[in-house]
Amino acid sequence: MAAVVTEQGVNHPTFKSPPSDLDLSIPSLYEYHAKNSPTHPVFSYVNTATKAIRDITFAEAWDRINTLIERVYLDYKGSPQNSVSRLDHSRPVIGILAIADQLSYLYLEVAIMSLGYTVFPISSRNSAQVVAHLVEKTAIRLLYVSADSEMQALSNSADKILRERNWQVWMRYMVTPKEYEKEHVPTEANRKVDIGDDDVTMILHSSGTTAFPKPIPVTRRRMINISKIPSFGEVDLAGKRIAAHTNPIYHGMGLATVIWPLTCGATFVLYPPVSPPIIPTPSNFIASWIAGKCDIVFSVPVFIEAWARNPAHIPALSSLDCIVYGGASVNKALGDMLTHAGVTLHSLWGSTEQGPATMFIPKDPPPIDEWEYFKLMPQATYHLEPQPGLKNIYEPIMIANDICAPNVTNMEMNGKPAYAAGDLLEQHPTNPDRWRVYGRKDVQIMLSTGENVNPVPIEEILGEDPHIVVAVMFGRHRIQPGVLIQPTPDHQIPAGDEKKAEQFKNLIWQSVEKANAHSPAYARIERNMIIVTSPDKPLDRTPKGSARHKVCVERYAEEIEKLYAIEEDCELHPELRQFPDRV
């Protein structure tokens, strides 16, 4: 393709970029750098006791991976396996369900891949039903589980469900830093196995926004192509220190921690490898990346928004090369405040199904008031499908090419496999090459009046209220929208307690009015269209914390139907409306 590739590690003293024609697998790239870039720091952390920076070189990382290769080989050899995978390949699938430090997690992942096995990292925030579903769906027979009580309880509950389905999974304790920090003793056998380009080397799972999470297979070829994404940007990242403390390795953003240093030479800075692991907070995250002398922060918005609310953090934030955020949108008001204070924000949009789709990282910062907009990665091929009745709104459809292809496909376009993301993008009014996220196609609410409601910005404003866990709008094919609101644990309302429900509405009303002020008249939330959820029917959420809209609305279908029935009755008998001043 004609798209320009930015060479990484040009004239760098310790990082030797691998030749593109070698086409090495991820484990082979670690081995390559252990020989050709042995002193280059691939990972780094700040020692909690001494506060000193501790860099981990490629040589050291590969040595630790080799220590775990032997552990995984013996664990699998001793397991009751001999199963055939349900993803059309016979190599074993090994799962990880753990609350663990990032280094232990990624070392184990690479060790599993080195043996030619398929690794499946599973989010620790899933329910037992979801874990059992994913284990059975992908034919996992060996599962590494951390020793903490939470994961032990979760794995035991999932195992009980699986046994009822006559499915047996062999569980072993998650690796710990003490295990691989000891000196590696080489074995006579060469355990490393390379696999074919179209063999599945890793499985990720979707967040399950609208249904159960789905396993997403990632082939060897696709993994190699994803590892090259930094070179599809406009910056040579070799030697840059990237803060990635809060990106869990089981997530797509965490996958970048494992594979991007191999092709760009950036050092990914993490929390120290301790057991139990450090629980991220906005406070310890910013302290860690400042102490770790980071140039770039790569994070989800919740941490960025917390820092933005503290003026004392602005000097540190503005001193960074940039902040790259993904997984959700940054609050508009806070993002505006940060960029006006000199902070550079870059959005990384994508999905597990298609991988990252935007440029990482552009050379020039976006205009201050247009930080939400991004450029699609030029190496990817997209068809932008216009959305009827929505000006400048398109659904991006990724069409497979030799460089960028989706991990899964759901359609064909121009005779080629393609993936319709289900996200909607809004085109910049004057620059057709720039886009911003508009929302999910499947959560747009078409009212019976013909107007379309985008619930995302309304739900985000309501979600900022300290008394609200999550909000979900409803109203498809109705005359007006409503919203489900789940209170925080200290403000939960017993089912049927209308008096307390009204008191809670008073408590959050300022946030409702704020959301309404940013919405067209037909999308505004009236007080009588708020359903406060009950503790016995919590709203279902993904591991990322966002609501599963379809599941939530179905869960409260009876209450929603009753609410609209009351509203219809009120229209016939206005005297029955509880709040006539809002008619």
Description:
It holds the Pfam family AMP-binding_C_3. This is Acetyl-CoA synthetase-like protein. Residues 102-366 form the AMP-dependent synthetase/ligase domain. InterPro entries: Adenylate-forming_Reductase, AMP-dep_synth/lig_dom, ANL_N_sf. The strands form seven sheets. A seven-stranded mixed β-sheet has the order 2-1-10-9-11-12-13, with helices on both faces. The protein has a domain at 445-582: ANL, C-terminal domain (GMP Synthetase, Chain A, domain 3). Helix 7 (220-227) packs across helix 8 (252-264) and helix 9 packs across helix 10. The longest helix has 20 residues, at 58-77. The chain has 583 residues and is α/β, with parallel strands linked by helices. It has 16 helices and 27 strands.
Short overview:
With 583 residues, the protein is an alpha/beta fold. It has 16 helices and 27 strands.
What CATH first level of the domain at 445-582 would be assigned?
Alpha Beta
- Sketch the major β-sheet: 7 strands, mixed
The main sheet orders its strands as 2-1-10-9-11-12-13
C-alpha-based Rg, rounded: 25 Å
User: For the terminal residues, how far apart are their CA atoms?
Assistant: 59 Å
Fraction of helical residues: 25-40%
Look up the CATH topology of the domain at 445-582: GMP Synthetase, Chain A, domain 3
The CATH architecture name of the domain at 445-582 reads 2-Layer Sandwich
The backbone outline, from C-alpha atoms, is globular
Number of separate strands: 27
Name of the CATH homologous superfamily of the domain at 445-582:
ANL, C-terminal domain
Mean pLDDT: 89
Structural class computed from helices and strand pairing: alpha/beta
Number of helices: 16
**Fraction of residues in β-strands:** 15-25%
Low-confidence stretches: 82-89, 572-583
Pfam family, one: AMP-binding
Protein name: Acetyl-CoA synthetase-like protein
Organism: Trametes coccinea (strain BRFM310)
Keywords: Phosphopantetheine, Phosphoprotein
